[in-house]
Design brief:
The chain has 74 residues and is an all-alpha fold. The chain has four helices and no strands. It is rod-shaped and about 70 Å long.
Length: 74
């Protein structure tokens, strides 16, 4: 006996609202593969945190420039 899902995801609701026939035909799966790939890529990009290496390099370059321009002294 399988238990029916009691929650509806926003993605599924949006897909159904866009094209109910295609959503039902695809069995609730993504029917627009390019849109699904773009959405996954965007979610992964949003989930990434700031890069520590980029921050350290930028800070080092800024400090080097300030020393070179004699704004700060060592």
């Amino acid at each position: 006996m399988s238990k029916a899902k009691s929650n509806v995801s926003v993605s599924n609701l949006a897909q159904y609202a866009e094209d109910p026939t295609a959503f039902i035909k695809a069995g609730g799966k993504a029917y627009n593969e390019s849109a699904a790939a773009a959405g996954t890529k965007a979610h992964q990009r949003i989930g990434m945190g700031p890069s520590k290496a980029k921050f350290l390099i930028a800070t080092g370059l800024l400090l080097a420039a300030l020393v070179y321009l004699r704004v700060i002294g060592l």
